[in-house]
Design goal:
mainly beta, Porin, 2 helices
């Protein structure tokens, strides 16, 4: 499994290089957008904006061995103009996971997790209330059984938000059910709710809170919910002479409610490259 995971990393690196080169060459196409206004656009999950975020999650206190799990989510966002009235926003999450042995007798694992693409149909010219709806899917691409569900899953997804002065407020949610896959693995029925609150400051700085709340309906009672509480801060930078926009943020979340053996708290650091259209 480790050999296949390493091959996956090589393929990701090979694919990332031309993307980064394109970013550097195309960066001068960015206008002189105000850093704060551009930061607000990055906080809109259905913005007409191409971006490549890498979200690094460090989960502390996992299992009886009290280990630190790393989950790196590569999650490109690509908008597609369907008509003058409608956009299709594609958001794909590919997890890269390092899981030390969480308990005695349980092996460590490193590799790719399950691929999760989501498609939002959203108005190209929204009003005060910005929204998107569409399907979300999970494909069993994990390189080890411990890193994925072993199931093909799907369900509805939706996002709604508003921008009021310096505030960007909204919520993203989806519910998935397994429809096929390894019959020996537990069926999937999982809810995800991600409220987000951002307060934008001058020069591209902002305060942020974006906890990811989940409910695993197939788990035993008392082990279904994960409810974090926390927040952090971020800044949109313009890097180098070409002024390449890079959005970064750092936040921490404590799990008020969690399944047995899950992490006590999480540190999240995200770097988001913005690609001009």
């Amino acid at each position: 499994m480790r050999h296949h995971a390493n091959q996956g990393h090589l393929r990701l690196a090979d694919a990332a290089f031309p993307i980064l080169l394109t970013l550097l060459l195309a960066a001068p196409l960015w206008g002189a957008d105000d850093a704060t206004e551009l930061a607000k656009k990055t906080q809109n999950p259905v913005a007409d904006l191409i971006s490549i975020p890498l979200q690094n999650n460090f989960n502390f206190g996992v299992g009886p061995n009290n280990v630190t799990q790393y989950v790196g989510n590569l999650q490109p966002v690509i908008p597609i103009k369907l008509t003058e009235e409608w956009n299709l926003i594609t958001r794909t999450i590919l997890p890269i996971i390092n899981q030390p042995s969480p308990a005695p007798g349980v092996s460590s694992n490193f590799g790719l997790g399950d691929l999760n693409p989501t498609f939002f149909l959203s108005p190209a010219k929204p009003g005060a209330l910005i929204w998107g709806v569409g399907p979300t899917f999970t494909f069993p691409t994990a390189t080890d059984t411990a890193l994925g569900s072993g199931k093909w899953s799907m369900g509805p997804a939706a996002v709604v938000l508003t921008m009021q002065g310096p505030w960007v407020l909204g919520v993203l949610a989806n519910q998935q059910w397994s429809v096929a896959g390894d019959s020996a693995r537990r069926s999937v029925s999982q809810l995800l709710i991600q409220p987000f609150v951002n307060y934008n400051l001058p020069d591209g700085w902002y305060l942020t809170s974006s906890p990811i709340i989940t409910a695993n309906w197939m788990a035993d009672s008392g082990d279904q919910w994960t409810v974090p509480l926390g927040g952090g801060f971020g800044k949109l930078w313009r890097v180098g002479k070409v002024g390449l926009p890079v959005n970064t943020n750092l936040s921490a979340y404590y799990n008020l409610e969690k399944p047995q053996g899950a992490a006590d708290w999480q540190l999240r650091f995200q770097v988001q490259l913005l690609l001009p259209k």
